[in-house]
Structures are given as C-alpha cells and as structure tokens.
Design brief:
- The complex is a heterodimer of chains A (241) and B (499).
- Chain A has 241 residues and is mainly α.
- Chain A has one domain.
- In chain A, helix 12 crosses helix 13.
- The longest helix of chain A has 27 residues.
- The radius of gyration of chain A is 19 Å and the shape is globular.
- Chain A starts with a helix and ends with a helix.
- Chain B contains eleven helices and 24 strands.
- In chain B, helix 6 packs across helix 9.
- Chain B has three domains: 137 residues, Glutaredoxin, CATH 3.40.30.10; 271 residues, Rossmann fold, CATH 3.40.50.880; 25 residues, no CATH class.
- In chain B, strand 9, helix 7 and strand 10 form a beta-alpha-beta unit.
- With 499 residues, chain B is of the alpha+beta class.
- Chain B starts with a helix and ends in a 5-residue tail after the last helix.
- The chains are: A mainly alpha (241), B alpha+beta (499).
- Strand 1 of chain A pairs antiparallel with strand 1 of chain B, so a sheet runs across the interface.
Chain lengths: 241, 499
Amino acid sequence: MKQIWIITKKELKGYFDSLMAYILIVVFLGLSGFFTWLYGNNDVFFINRATMQPFFGIAYWTLFIFIPALTMKQIAEEYKTGTIELMLTKPVSDWQIVTGKFLSTFLLIVVSLILTLPYYISIASIGPIDHGSVWTGYLGLLLMSAAYISLGIFASSITSNQIVAFLLALIIGIFFQILFGIIASAFSGVAGDFLSYMDMRYHYQSITRGVVDSKNLIYFASIIMMGLMASELSLVKRNLN
Amino acid sequence: MFKKSQLKYYILLVIGIIVLINMLASRFFFRLDFTEDQRYTLSETTKDIMEGITEPVTVTAYFSEGLQPQFDQLRNDFKDILAEYASLSNRQVVYEFVNPNEDQQLEQKAVEAGIQTVMIEAREKDQSTTKKAYMGAVIQIGEASETIPFIQPGAQMEYALTTAIKKMTVPEKAAVGFISGHGEAHLSEMMQVTQGLDVLYVPEEVELSDSVNLSKYKTIAWINPQDTIPEEHLAIVDAFLAQGGNLFVALNKVDAQLNQGMGFSKYTALGKWLEGKGIKVEDNFVMDVNCGSVTVQQRQGIFTVNRPINFPYLPILSNFAEHPITSGLGSMVLQFASSLSFSGDSTMNYTPLVFTSDKSTTQATPVYFNIQKQWEESDFPMSKLAVAAMVESDNSKIVVISDGDMAINGSGDEIRQVQPDNANFVVNAIDFMSDDTGLIQLRSKQVKMRPLDQIDDADKQILKWVNFALPIMIILGIGIYRNQKRKLIRLKRKGESYV
C-alpha cells in the first residue's frame, strides 16, 4: 500500500507540474461551465429547474475525451524514456505501478469535479434541488471516470507512443460510450442483452437519476478491474519477453 | 511472478470470475434510492394496495426488442419494478415479457389488448428504417383486465401499474358530482381532472333542481360558475353540507378582460355564500414575482417580434401547507387568482393550503394591466398570501381555490394542457374529502417539479459568469502558485549559499 501511495503522490505531483494537465482541466471546466450556464439551449436557466442534469449530461462527454488525454502518457512515456526498466528494478510490483498510476489520475478527476461544486451550491441556493440525486450524479461521474482511466492505462501499457495510446483509449471508450448501445439495437436475444449491458450510458444514467443499483456498481467495478488487470498483464508480458 | 504458460490460464480465470459475478449480480441485486422523495422506490400506497390483493396478478409486458438503448433501458427498468412488485406481494404478481415483433400472432394479440403501436427509428443492415414497436402491458386479476397502452421513457411506471391494479380492485366506484347549469366547465373540458378521478370514481354532471338527490355523493365539485346562482340552488348545497357532504370550489372572484386591458370584480353569489361558510375570497388580483409570461408583439425597427415578458398576474406557486391534499405537489400555475381569508368563527377549522411566494402583492379591482411595466422587487411587499384553503365545520369540508380556470383544458381549438399539479390538486382534494387518500402520494410522485426561484436578470448574469469563471480561476490560481513556488526553489538552488 505504501508503494502504491508513493507512486500516486509522485504521479499526482507530476500532473500538477505539467502544463498539459492544467490545459485539460481548464478545457473540461470551460466546456462544462459553458454548456451548464451559458449555452442558451439546455442550460440551467433555460430549463428552469433546480437540477444538475445539464452538467452531468455534458460531463459525461467531456470526461470521455479528457481522460484518454490524461492517461495516454502514464505507461507509454515510461516505455519511451526507458524509466519503466528503472522502476521495475525497485521493490514494487507491476500491480502497484498500475494501481498507483490509476489512483493519481482518479484523484486528479476528483479535484476537477470538486471544482464544479460551485454549480451545485449556486443551483441549491436558487431552487429546491434534489441533493440525493446530485451526489449519486457525482458518484456516477467518478465511476465512469474510473472505468475510462483503467481502460486508458491499459491502452498506455501496450504502446510506447502516446498518440497511439490516446487514440486506442478513445476507440475502446467509443465502444462503451456509443457503439455497444447502437450495435445492441441490431441484435436480439442473449447477444442483444449482453451488448445492452455493456453500454456504459445505461449504467451511468441509472446512477445519475438517483438510484444506486448493485448491478451498476458491479458493472463499473468489473470494467475497472478488467482494465487494471489487463494493464498489469501487459507489463508482465513485456517483462517476460 | 507469472510464467508465460500460466498467463493465458490466469486471463481466462479472471474473465470467467468477472462474467460469473456479473451474471449473479443480474439475479441478486439491491437498489438504494437516494432521491429526496424516493421517486424510484415503491411507495407506502403501493405497498398497502399490494398487501390487500388476494388473487394473483398477471402482468404481460409487450416490449419490442432490438430497439435503441434507451428503450432497452426502459424494458429493464420495467422488469426491475415488476420484480419489486412480485417480492412485495409474496409472488402474487407474476409477469412475463413478450416480444410482439417475433410473431404475427403475438403482435395481433398485443394490438387486440389495446397496446399502442409506436414507430421508432432503428438501424438495420446499414439502413435507417422505421420499426413498429410496442411498449405496453396488460394487467389481469381474475376476469378483470387493464391495459397500459404505452410506457414512454421517463414515465412513472409505479403510478401506471398501481392505478391499474387499484382500478380493478375497487369493488364499486363512488360517484363524484360536478355541479352544472350556471355556465360551469363541463367534464369534457377537464380531461386531466377526469382522468385522475376515473381510477376511483365516476365523475358525473349534476344540475341543482328541486328533484336532485345529492345524497349519493360524498363530495361534489363546483368548477368556475359564470352566472349568478339562485338562492334555492345554494340552499340545496347547504342541505348537502348539513348532511355531512363535502364541496370543492374553484371560483373566479375577479375577471380579466385582456383585450380591454382591464380586470373587474365578478359576481356569482357563490363568493358571498362561501363567506358565510368561513372562507372569504377577496375582490383583488394576486400578483407574484415568481410568475408565468405572456407573449407581446414589439416593433424593433421595421420588424415586429414576439417577446415573452413576465406577467405577475400568473403566479407560479410552490409554497404548500403540510397536508395530504398538497402532499408531493411541486408547482401550480394560476391565472388571475384572488387572495383568501378566514371569515368564520371558532366552530370552524380553517386550513390555508396553497400560498404565494415571499414576494407577492394584491391589487384591488378594477385593475388596468400595464404589460410594459418593468416590475421591481419593491412592487411585491407582501408574502405568503393564501389562494387555496379548506374549512371544516361539523362533518363537512369545503376546499376553495380562487381561480376557476386552473384545471380547465377547454375544448375545440382552444384546448390546452394545464400544469399537471393543478389537476392533481383538484383530484387530491376530492380524494381527501372522500376519505380515500390512497393514491394522493403516487399521483404527485409522477410530476414532481423543481422550479428555480425567480431572480432578476442582473443576478442571473452574475450567477452565470461566476459559475463559468470561478472554477477556471481557481485552477489557474493553483497553477500560477505552484509555478512560482517551483521558480523560487530553482532560484534558491542556483544561489551560492545552497548546499
């Protein structure tokens, strides 16, 4: 655990010392703020209801783009600069490296989402907001982010090229974000049910409306575990080679 | 550490475990509803109704498969809610899902049962096609059956299911009388109210004449009379109340003539009669800073543009008393209402039910409407004026709301939807007075609105820009601070005295 935390801290510090992370957070907050408050078609004042749904709707898409950009360098850069060999000579396991890197990106997302709390405070001050569904909305965003982070780290673990890692993470993400849902409509029976189940939007929307269902939690936990384990195996395989 | 040969077994094992857990999770699951009003949890009302069921309830859900994901989600949600009903009723509720698109006979059966055919865009073999789809259910208890023709995404399934079950389990529906003969709204002009009442009652129009027998009603409603009401008709209602009957009144004490730009008092004799019963409807117009808008035409250069402007005579009300009648209501919208006050004595129990906001006022008649006026907050010095109230004396109850049009849909070309909670208020009041509060909670659960407070444009702009800029400023501030700190450390390291 200590090793994981050391890696997490180092990576998180790295984020806060890099211009790239600031640019991405500013873009995330800019898009979220613009579509939640300023864009006169679906913003808070246009729909005139005390709800955070406009934000949860836009954050679902911005995080989907934002996360692969954050995770692309996580392991790919270590391969490219050769620091991964250095790291593996230390008394840390592959799992600890992967988990440490996962946690650092996750904490960065937590910080980004904390910065959107003024939205919540403002809406709550001008209308009877449903606090329960706001907190589950944030939970949904965190779970979705964690799932994409683990997939992003996996993409970063199989290539030393950051752009390839970014595109790969985005392509895997597109399946969960859009394609599984669309392909599901072309199938019926078990295949259709399976593809519908894989669609992340269904699970995300279920949580953001205010209901925490064990099925959704297990779905997200499964994606996160699969991503992290695949990343670990990718490192293991590289070492074995 | 792994050996190369072990790797593939490890991968297969992990995938197998994860698939197994997910399969088990779809069978054994729990749901925690964190919404304030427990929107997605079966309510006490449903539980009470289900406990009273002695016969098996069979639900046949006709849901097309292979549609867009939101419809798959709808099917899953419906399945989940039926699972909750089944566990609540000790498996008295049994259900099956049928895909009518699979077989022509099944489709025929669905259509015959009254399931609505909807056309949905789908993508098949690289082509966009319009697909026939079904999303409804047939509920059967013994010989009786009820159909939910179409469940749309976002609809309140619990309300639809429970009301359908309740409809079939009510032994005999009671009648509710709607007084007519003085220019009142007809039942056909109040679709939303009659739909709500249909579950438990048979609404019927009744004319007050010497031979009329009101004793079969527990509650009668008097919606928006236009003409002066003769004394003898009021005496018949007096006698009905004396026998323990209840009365719901929606009354216009003032009338707005928008084409003349004026508002006047309106006399029907009902107001004066109600004053004797303990509720005085004032001759004034209630105005609220939280209000609806009217569209006005304005000339801008050579163009004429339609612009919505706030019109305080259309109050949006979200202040309700803690009372079964107003339980769960979100917001009502009235048009040209008046304020109410208590005019009774200590033998009566007066309960105000619906109030204006903290920034409201009244204008005595006659009123000249100034559409162009820029309203300031200082124009609304009053607060929480009652616009609906109940008075109880002896065994009877009277509920009055000071807007006769609040639940009228109209007819022909002038048909309109009223705010769902306006109709819910009328139905809830009749339910409450008829001693059947069972569906009150469910009905309002369907349409919980959470409107924003009315704030002026300047504050709105401030909120918009602060929320847009503040988070960005904070993160930029953190970045600049860390950058400066790093610079200082670097400078320190460059210093001669640094060791």
